[in-house]
Predict the structure.
Amino acid sequence: MTLALPLIGAQLAQAATGFVDTLMMGRLGRESLASGALGSLLFMELLVVGTNLVATSSSFIAEAYGAQQPEQAGRWLNQGVWLAMAIALPLALVMWNAQPWLQLLGQPPAIVALAETYLRAASVAYLPALIFVALRSFVSALFQPRIVVVLTLCGVVLNAIANEVLAFGRWGFPALGLAGIGWSTAFIYWTMALVLVAYVLSQSQFAKYRPLQGLHRPHWADLWELVRVSLPVAVLSAFETGAFAVTAIFAGQMGVVVLAAHQIALQTVAVTFMVPLGISQAATVRVGQCSGQGDWHTARLSGIISLSLGGGFMGLMGLLILLAPAQFVSIYVDLSDPANGEVVALAITLLTVGAIFQVVDGLQVVAAGALRGLKDTRIPMAIGLVAYWFVGVPSGYAAGFRLGLGGVGLWCGLAIGLAIAAVALTWRFYRLTMAFKPVKS
């Protein structure tokens, strides 16, 4: 909990940034909300892929920390930064040239054109976002995550101010609309990355790790090992977030009302998801540290406790959403405005489905984090492929389009996929660690 609470705080603060962005998009109008939903989902899909590639360095850093090899821990940080720089440009170019791909996916031309203005601005944020992830993984693996919380909380405040200034044209700035929200994202990530670099380099407690020293000279064997372990992690996360992104595309094909309601419901459950995501990151570090020390019994206990915390919290949140879905929807849109009637009604229904899959969503992400601490990534990747793409997405499409359930059917498919992943990943961790015995004193 000492490690998890700051990481949870950082994740909640990051989610708050997306929450503020969604509020601003809603103020710009229903079309901007739908376009922003499409653009931000693509941005987050690519950011999650990059984040999971880079953040896997935390398991290597934690293992080196547990084995009392400080310079090796610093070297793993450098490999994380190299990996961030290597993937930033190609994935940012995908965002910059997203319009043809979105058109091929059957999205309305007006929505695609508006989404492109957001994505081109947000693509500038991609490199600093990944560098921030590399440094965040380093300080977290060394049990120094509080600076990440402080920076992310400051980022929330600055993002809200920058959104107001750039989107609506305050203090003499032009009103850039949805593009202004994208430029605000770029400004915030560059600021946080530069401040965290300065912090790590200036603190004496990190001196023995030699962070970012020798960065001009990559260690190819270590870099390849990081890629080998992290690539399945990134693919697994791409399977999961990709399922949500494809669901958003299906929702867009059903119309602006369905897409807007989907964005409201998704943003709500995304906030609660940040807590088990923070617990998952803590599980990766603790399991990695204990494996570096050869304390396999504590590694198993860390995973079990993390699963209990993540699943228990999400069960409480699911109950809360189930009891008061309209209150959550009212945060984003005016319930009394007749123009929002269809969006409100559908968003409430989607949140009801979302409340039900809260528990399995929490369990699957924590189990994946615990397995990552053991550097077990290939089988979880296969589990994600089956759960999300062989079952979840097809069943959602069938229920939404063939059975005529619309957005509700799409979300039922997501729930089924998440449930399969949760059971399989939890069972995988249990099987791998069932032979771990307590360390004799």
User: Anything to note?
Assistant: Residues 229 and 377 are 6 Å apart (CA to CA). Residues 4-433 form one domain. Residues 256-293 form the longest helix (38 residues).
